[in-house]
Amino acid sequence: MAIRTLxxxxxxxxxxxxxxxxGITTRKPLKSLLVNQRSKAGRNNQGRITTRHQxxxxxxxxxxxxxxxxxxxxxxxxxxxDPNRSARIARVKDENGVYHYVLAASGMRVGQKIESGAEAPxxxxxxxxxxxxxxxxxxxxxxxxxxxxxxxxxxxGVGAQLVAKEDDYVQVRMPSGEIRKINANCMAHIGxxxxxxxxxxxxxxxxxxxxxxxxxxxxxxxMNAVDHPHxxxxxxxxxxxxxxxxxxxxxxxxxxxxxxxxxxxxxxxxTRHEAKRK
Length: 278
Hints:
Blueprint: E1 3-5, E2 17-19, E3 34-35, E4 62-63, E5 72-80, E6 89-94, E7 99-103, E8 113-116, E9 127-129, E10 138-140, E11 142-143, E12 150-152, E13 160-166, E14 169-173, E15 179-183, E16 187-190, H1 206-211, E17 268-270, H2 272-277
Antiparallel strand pairs: 1-2, 3-4, 5-6, 5-8, 6-7, 9-16, 10-13, 10-16, 11-12, 13-14, 14-15, 15-17
């Protein structure tokens, strides 16, 4: 994938870049793998906003991705664009004639054969148990629990590294730098996810974010005192008179908000913060 620069015929297009779609082989998705999805605009079933700054955006269908492809041999038929994720998806057809959508690995092409299972060969796009993947390999689409399906490393251009194996667990270096233990029976794809240049795209104008369903975010210091703890004042440029907080008064920016009742960190060998210090 390459980055395409737009001709600045309008002020909003000056500096704007977009992705080219040369690697996409079809613009028509498979209808049997599409699901209607309704925009919730960040609201729960009671209509209350639980996630701010969401709403609007273009209508789109959800592509049913098979994150738990197991014990099959398939052929890649198309590489498609997915509006619901940054990565590309591949339409594959297995030996029984059933179609699936899977995350497309970097370099995946039409006609390529992929396999899933303990006996699958070591090549990009194949899915194997972690215990059967050589140490040092790049992997993506990693399970956290055997049989649950891929949960980790699913964004465009990212990949993890299988660092070491010990007993019933393997150590995996995540894209954030964190090293954690994962059950050796969990499955993962070999390789890196495609669409590597996604992070280098310059949005260019606010309207493109509105198309994605992202609404504007307003700083607390420019609000009134009744709307935010940072609000109020004479309107001049001054620093806040209190430690940074959320609109509901909870401390942030350095304050640990993780619940003490949360899941244990015993599987984390090295945190992402320790990796940044070196």
